[in-house]
Amino acid sequence: MLRWYFLNDCHPEVVRIYGQMRSSVKENDNVVFSIVLKACRELRDIDGGRKVHGHVLKAGSPDSFVFTGLVDMYAKCGDIKCSRQAFDEILHRNVVSWTSMIVGYVQNGCAEEALALFNRMRGGRVGGNQFTLGSLVTACSKLGALHQGKWLHGYLIKNGIELNSFLVTALLDMYAKCGEISDAKTVFDELSSTDLVSWTAMIVGYTQSGHAYMALKLFTNEKWASLTPNSVTAASVLSACAQLGSLNMGMSVHGQGIKLGLEESAVKNALLDMYAKSQRMEDACCVFNSISEKDVIAWNSLISGFVQNGSADKALELFQQMRSESLPPDAVTLVVVLSASAFLAALTVGSSLHAYSIKQGLLSANVHVGTAILNFYAKCGDLESARRVFDGMDFKNTVTWSAMIGGYGIHGDGSGSLTLFSDMLKEEITPTEVIFTSILSACRHTGLVGEGWRYFNSMCQDYNFVPSMKHYACVIDLLSRAGRLEEALEFIERMPMQPGISLFGAFLHGCGLYSRCDLAEVAIKRMLELHPDEACYYVLMSNLSASDGRWSRVNYFMELMEEKGLKKSPACSTLEMDARDKFSAARVATA
After folding, report:
1. φ and ψ at 289, to 5 degrees?
2. pTM here?
3. What's the pLDDT tens digit per position in 404-424?
4. Helix pair angle (398-410, 414-426), 10° resolution
């Protein structure tokens, strides 16, 4: 009877009937113990499992199946220490008991221990099966251990272990996460038959490794037309659409998902993200409102969408709504909302989020939260608070260093930026292209021409980075602000790429500072050739003519703009008047 209940997923009944049996039957055999332990495992009932463990010890003479059941139950309930103690009690271990312990280690985030245990297993001359190898490959995925993953792949081929869906998925995931997408494709192409699981796993691998185009190509390939996508397939394809900005394909998948009844939260969240990244916030809101039980991922996706689309005020309003529904924000929420607060210079809200992150332990545990907080303070002009957050962080990544270096730069403290950059190099942290952008920006804000040239050359020669348009713009701005306009123009002419708007804008700013209308006209003519429909260049030319008293030229450019139907977008500034009216700091900081 117990077995029947278990096979029909009536796990609570198994535990209940076992309790009744204990009151009427003095002894239970190992088969009963094994079934009840499996039921406790499925229910994640560790207290019930411990009671059965006590009954097992009291009964005496447990076999390897019972001990393996204990290993599995404790591991599934998250007590890996007790799981290992039960494993060590097994005198005659078979492939099932070894595999249960290895799977337990992997599922509980102990990937290294799983690989070490496999070495002991091989030392005991016990060969692994598909589930052993699948779990070990997953361990390599988590560790980014490509070499060990390839060795395991070779091991299963050498030992003739057939690839099942679990093992194929693990291999594809491992190669994709280790950056070897070509090896993942080789595994996929060599499959004798492809099912929904392997097809989906390959699409997921492409999407997660940044090969969104290949994911969509595989999804739309007629060769796999007979396969009906599931929720995982749909969510991954929608993520690929979001990466590429492929709105039409995303809408098509949306329609297909409705027909197939794919209403899982993963699909809805992916849809929400796709519409937000395609600048279709109205559609994103419709999807959001259709979700009956909104999790934190859904809220994060919509809040992030508003921030990305320039509606930081709406993002904060939505965050307030999230808090009013007593849903606690996670690290992602804080990073996004801090970004919105920085954009609006909402110091009160950001400070409250800082307090909340300390209270919840997120500031010390998550480098992204710490970086977002210091970046928020730097952008709001509170450099002292930004530095306190920076110094208090136990771990800093390159983004953290870049944010602090950039913070000093935008506030005109060039020496602070250069000193911090020097400290970073002393800690043997290799600078990234973004960090070089921050340091060059700091040099241009403070007029450190010599240092700027030195860092630009170091970036190219010592670190072999190819300068981007941002790097070139920083150098042009640096030279232009210092009045070295001929040198700046010559630098523009030597550039290996087409100059952008920001670059010419920096040069023209310098021309305005030093009243060099002759050089400005040369630059503007170049810009008008490249961008004849940009109103800002005509306005620049008009302003330069006005500063030189050439009013006929001013009228000429204004008339030219009118003929072309061009209008300059009005500028705006943002400052916090009283954030308490709309965004309650007390509510933000409430746990």
Report:
1. -70, -20
2. 0.77
3. 999 998 888 888 999 999 999
4. 160
